[in-house]
Design a protein that fits this description.
The structure holds two protein chains of two kinds.
Chain A (H helix, E strand, L loop, with lengths): L1 H18 L4 H12 L24 E3 L8 H6 L10 H10 L13 E3 L19 H15 L2 H5 L4 E4 L12 H7 L9 E4 L14 E2 L6 H6 L10 E6 L18 H9 L5 E4 L6 H6 L1 E7 L8 H7 L3 E5 L13 H4 L1 E2 L8 H6 L3 H12 L1 H6 L11 H11 L5 H4 L22
Parallel strand pairs in A: 1-2, 2-3, 3-4, 4-5, 6-7, 6-8, 8-9, 9-10
Chain B lengths: L1 H18 L4 H5 L5 H20 L6 H6 L59 H22 L7 E7 L5 H14 L4 E8 L4 H8 L4 E7 L7 H22 L4 E4 L5 E2 L1 H6 L6 E3 L1 E4 L9 H9 L7 E6 L5 E5 L30 E4 L40 E2 L1 H4 L2 E5 L40 H8 L2 H6 L1 H35 L1
Parallel strand pairs in B: 1-2, 1-4, 2-3, 6-11, 7-12
Antiparallel strand pairs in B: 4-10, 5-12, 6-10, 7-8, 8-9
The chains are: A alpha/beta, B alpha/beta.
């Protein structure tokens, strides 16, 4: 008898030992260690947090939506792959073949819904957001009825990519976007978006800001020798007045771009104009400072271009939240100028000590910085896809009391929002 | 009707121009609240008033009357009122603010903001200088990071002598050397001894220099000149050996042309390197076609280049030299000849040396380098290759001779040409040539008889009595002027009289 019980305990122990590594609490314990050091690591050089590898730290389940939500839309217009909102499509493709993807939704930490809401383009190539709320709502209805995971948390462990102008507010005009607010169904989900401005309706807590998509091959093709001396002091190419929509100025860019033009058009140090030169990328590599002012929305692909080409970005957008702000020390890399200080821009820039400028250039030269701003095809380690996953991993483990609802508890109001949004898509 | 249509079109234009479709109406066509109608009517009224007035008047009146309490952005001080009521006029009307749903009032509001322009939007020269210093520092850092890692001092060897074109040539060379971003020592060997002319020229450069004289005068024939230049260069190499200068020796002839990439490229040399030299062999004659004809006869279409020749694996296999056979008939032998000035087979200018090769007690000196003392009495050193036992150790530079960064040229004035010392005309030149006076409109043509006689009789007369001719000329001028004035006066008076009549 004793022998038998001994043998049974041995077998049981052996079973437990083998099962130990795959048990849930161990993994979350390890993750907890990571999570206890969220933001102190950014001090000093960039790249501490940027070099983290998300594989093994989280699991993502990708919903299989009918192709009318993604593939068919892309087939209608291939331009969606090259415009600045292409991140939503590339993220989907990356996740499908990534190591963090799991086919078992029970073990997933995050759920991804591939719906391309920014792919309804005008002939000019600008996305129309009018059908996007209905599309998103229809997709959420689908996943909530076909899988139990939405209702379990009402979306708190789901993430969506909404790279449009004002994120999930789904409008290009700021006033209208603020009126609409974030889509009510997305109140609890994590939003991955390009828009970021503090104290703004369209940026909710816990969102992850990403850079707009800029084509990596095109930029690589225009690289020039690093020995070429940087002889332009400040460089900018773009609109100062949006003559079609705001001829007098004052609305566009909150008057900041017009102020730049009026104050510095005669200044020999400022190479600014509205032209579209073919040597735009090469010129940026010959400049020390590149202006990145706001437009109709505070973010712009100029930031990405400036980082890739080693030109110190001068960010003129009050209260902007820059991409991966918890991983990249933007204050150390770029120069932030308040919109009210634009008339004194030349004084501000020339009074920066040279050592500070050289340090910023060294930080910009860090390859992990440049890699974090890009969406290369196929994905490489340290790129923007991985930074998004790192951001999602940093939000783990889910706070059990908030994320998962008690049975029968309902928080979201499925009939909230403008009447037009409730129509089926 | 018309007004509302205008407003509608303005609102639609804002959205439609942006997106190209009027799909906006479906979303919020029905949301016309009281306030927006009121603002529309007000806007229409203001438009009417400004139409009547003829300029856009400020809506400050309404703002002052109905000033809303909270976050309106009012900027008064730094603004400038434009003269014309154009795009740049600022209005401090109430911002169409839409407060967000959250309780925290944001610092940034939506709506119309003013365009801030400072009262004097012109660059401050002090700041421009600061910016230039920043640019300079950044470029220096770039050079340190991506340029040559441990730049060596350059030692430029220039044989020269005083003649008319010396200033022309030396100024070019001087400015090229001043632009070189590395340390430089300029050794100038002057034929005929050290002169003040050359010293003052070199001093303008501000470069560290060693100026020595060579006790032979520069001969008139090109062949002899080449020989003497080679001797002068050897003399300079001896100086380098004595002073134990450390760096890269480069032979900078004063009439050659050097590009800035040359100085970056030669930093790559280890012991002795060779570059491609473009030969601008031109003819002194007035007709430029003689050289090109001869060139066409020689069946070439590209400018001749001297330099190293490599095989496909970039190893030195031979030399491209200047084939002077087609031109020997037309070549110039003396400096005054109207012929083509030809270079040697391989010019010194295409070679660079590590100065340590010249040192006497240098322990790591390679076996193939001969000692300089062996060449003490040698008459004609055609090229530095004679310094080597084995010519295959030469390193080809400039992508194996594919890049031409230095051009050989010899241009000289006639041997009897004179020039003012230091190019300062003081006292005035002895040779006077009359200048043509511009004719007064009514005056008869002037007869410059006396001056011509002086000139025709040859320079001797002018030399003997320089002052006299000058004084007489000036008197003549003054007299002429007075004559002109009186004549003009007469003419005017006569005209007036005729008019009066």
């Amino acid at each position: 008898m004793k022998m038998l019980t001994n043998i049974w305990t041995l077998i049981l122990l052996g079973f437990l030992c083998s099962a130990f590594p795959s048990m849930e609490p161990m993994r979350t314990g390890a993750l907890k260690l990571h999570r206890s050091q969220p933001t102190e690591r950014i001090s000093g050089s960039a790249g501490d947090v940027l070099d983290d590898d998300p594989v093994g730290r989280l699991k993502v389940f990708v919903y299989e939506l009918p192709s009318k939500y993604n593939k068919k839309i892309l087939q209608k217009d291939q331009r969606c792959l090259t415009h600045m909102f292409a991140a939503e499509i590339f993220m989907h493709r990356f996740l499908l073949s990534s190591a963090v993807r799991t086919l078992n939704p029970e073990e997933a930490d995050w759920f991804y819904t591939p719906v391309y809401t920014t792919c309804d383009l005008t002939p000019n190539g600008l996305p129309l957001p009018f059908k996007s709320p209905r599309m998103m709502r229809s997709a959420i209805q689908l996943i909530s009825s076909n899988w139990p995971y939405w209702n379990r948390s009402e979306g708190a462990d789901h993430f969506f990519l909404v790279p449009h102008d004002f994120g999930a507010c789904f409008h290009y005009q700021e006033e209208k976007a603020i009126e609409r607010g974030i889509l009510p169904l997305l109140q609890r989900a994590t939003l991955v978006q390009t828009f970021g401005q503090r104290n703004h309706v369209c940026l909710k807590d816990g969102s992850i800001t990403i850079p707009p998509y800029a084509p990596p091959q095109k930029m690589q093709a225009h690289l020039i020798h690093e020995k070429t001396p940087r002889s332009i002091f400040v460089y900018f190419r773009g609109l100062f007045y949006d003559v079609g929509n705001d001829p007098e100025g004052g609305y566009y860019a909150r008057g900041a771009r017009a102020a730049v033009w009026e104050n510095f058009k005669d200044n020999p140090l400022f190479d600014i104009s509205t032209e579209h030169p073919t040597t735009y990328y090469e010129d940026m590599q010959r400049a020390i400072f590149c202006l990145c002012p706001l437009g109709w929305a505070p973010w712009s692909p100029r930031l990405v271009e400036a980082v890739i080409f080693g030109c110190i970005p001068i960010i003129i957008a009050d209260d902007i939240v820059l991409p991966f702000a918890d991983a990249i020390p933007w204050e150390d890399i770029g120069v932030f100028v308040d919109e009210k200080d634009v008339p004194n821009l030349d004084t501000i820039l020339t009074s920066i000590p040279v050592e500070v400028i050289l340090r910023k250039q060294r930080l910009l030269a860090n390859p992990s910085m440049k890699q974090a701003m890009l969406f290369p095809q196929p994905a490489q380690s340290g790129d923007a896809f991985h930074q998004v996953l790192n951001g999602l991993a940093r939000k783990l483990p889910h706070d059990r009391s908030n994320v998962y609802l008690k049975p029968g508890q309902k928080i979201l109001n499925w009939t909230a929002g403008p009447v037009g949004d409730l129509k089926p898509w | 009707m018309k007004l509302s249509a205008l407003h509608q079109s303005y609102l639609n234009r804002r959205s439609s121009n942006f997106r190209g479709l009027s799909g906006d109406s479906s979303a919020d066509g029905s949301m016309k609240s009281q306030a927006s109608v009121f603002w529309l009517v007000l806007h229409g009224l203001c438009c009417l008033v400004s139409l009547v007035l003829g300029f856009r008047f400020s809506r400050l009146v309404f703002f002052l009357l109905f000033s809303p309490s909270t976050t309106t952005n009012l900027y008064s001080m730094p603004f400038r009122q434009a003269v014309e009521a154009s795009v740049f006029q600022l209005s401090t009307e109430a911002a169409n603010q839409v407060l967000p749903v959250n309780t925290t009032t944001p610092r940034v509001v939506v709506g119309r903001h003013g365009i801030r322009i400072r009262p004097w939007p012109h660059p401050d020269p002090v700041e421009v200088m600061k910016a230039h210093r920043i640019i300079e520092r950044v470029q220096r850092e770039q050079r340190a990071q991506f340029g040559v890692k441990a730049p060596r001092t350059l030692i430029a060897v220039t044989p020269t002598y005083v003649r008319t074109f010396q200033t022309l040539h030396m100024t070019g060379v001087m400015h090229s050397l001043m632009l070189v971003p590395y340390d430089l020592v300029w050794i100038v060997v002057e034929a005929g001894g050290v002169t003040n002319e050359t010293t003052s020229l070199i001093a303008k450069s501000g470069l560290r220099n060693i100026h020595v004289g060579f006790n032979e005068r520069m001969p008139n024939s090109w062949a002899d000149r080449h020989r003497l230049e080679a001797k002068m260069r050897l003399h300079a190499l001896k100086i380098i050996r004595e002073e134990k200068l450390d760096g890269i020796v480069i032979f900078v002839d004063d009439s050659n042309m050097h590009s800035m990439e040359l100085f970056d490229e030669i930093q790559n040399v280890k012991w002795i390197g060779a570059l491609s030299v473009g030969i601008l062999a031109h003819s002194n004659s007035a007709e430029e076609s003689s050289f090109s004809l001869a060139w066409k006869e020689a069946d070439n279409s590209v400018i001749p280049v001297q330099g190293p020749a490599c095989n496909s694996s970039n190893r030195l296999i031979g030399w491209h030299t200047f084939n002077s056979l087609p031109f020997l008939e037309k070549s110039a032998t003396h400096i005054d000849d109207r012929g083509i000035i030809l270079p040697r087979k391989l010019e010194w200018a295409g070679f660079v040396l590590n100065s340590r090769l010249l040192w006497k007690d240098f322990t790591d000196k390679p076996m193939w380098m001969k000692d300089l003392d062996l060449f003490d009495g040698v008459d004609d050193m055609e090229s530095p290759l004679l310094l080597l036992n084995d010519a295959s150790v030469v390193e080809p530079l400039g992508r194996c001779g594919l890049q031409v960064m230095i051009w050989w040229l010899r241009v000289e004035a006639r041997s009897d040409s004179k020039f003012p010392p230091g190019w300062v005309i003081d006292p005035p030149l002895e040779i006077t040539v009359p200048s043509k006076h511009t004719q007064w409109p009514d005056a008869p043509p002037e007869l410059p008889m006396s001056d011509k006689i002086v000139d025709a009789q040859g320079e001797t007369l002018a030399v003997k009595r320089p002052g006299k001719t000058r004084r007489s000329r000036s008197k003549h001028d003054a007299r002429n002027k007075r004559k002109h004035e009186s004549r003009n006066a007469e003419v005017d008076i006569s005209e007036k009289q005729t008019k009066q009549n």
